[in-house]
Amino acid sequence: MLMPWAAQVAAIVQAWLPGQAMGEALADVLLGAAEPGGRLPVTFPAAEADCPVLHAAPVDGVLRYDEGLLIGYRGYDRQGISPQFAFGHGLGYTTWEYESVHASAAEPGPGSQRRAGDMELTVTIRNTGRRAGKEVVQAYLAAAPGDQGRPVRVLAAFAAVTAEPGETADVRLRVPGRAFCRYDEARAAWLPVPGPFTLQVGRSSRDLRLSLIVTAP
Fold this sequence. Notes:
With 217 residues, the protein is mainly β. It has helices at residues 22-31, 73-79, and strands at 96-105, 119-127, 133-142, 153-163, 168-175, 181-184, 189-192, 197-204, 207-214. Residues 108-112 have low confidence and may be disordered.
């Protein structure tokens, strides 16, 4: 979807498929009674030619996937193209400061979905606005320098948090151990990729506020 008029408006509401309660929900968001909590699960291009996969039609009965993993925001990142709205983008009624991020190994526990090899991030953010709000904190794992076979960065974890004006909040994200691996077709197995790795944390795939270097857990 192209939106050459986007700069002429203060904000854009993408309601997707909101259901029968759309009227009340949309009114609450527009009037400020509720925080718009969604984030884009796709990328909106600034121009049609920018799309990494512009045409997906079979040729002689064969549909090739030459782009590999470089679809969506991954394709924009690899080509260095600035989109109209990035993957993970979303507005709210307050502002946030990203203060710190720390990593630790996540140990499995009774009834837990954590697995040995996962990594836990603790991100501290502060609501710097004048009203309560909701933020979706996103962590992206960057590829090793020179590794052209992997995307520049991939979404590794995300979590939502609410905070009052001036309040800090600790957000815990779990990065699965498989994010540090590559699938080997010949061996039909996930194999570790030599590190170290860079984890970037922020508000979208193009608004990254914090970073840290980690080794695979």
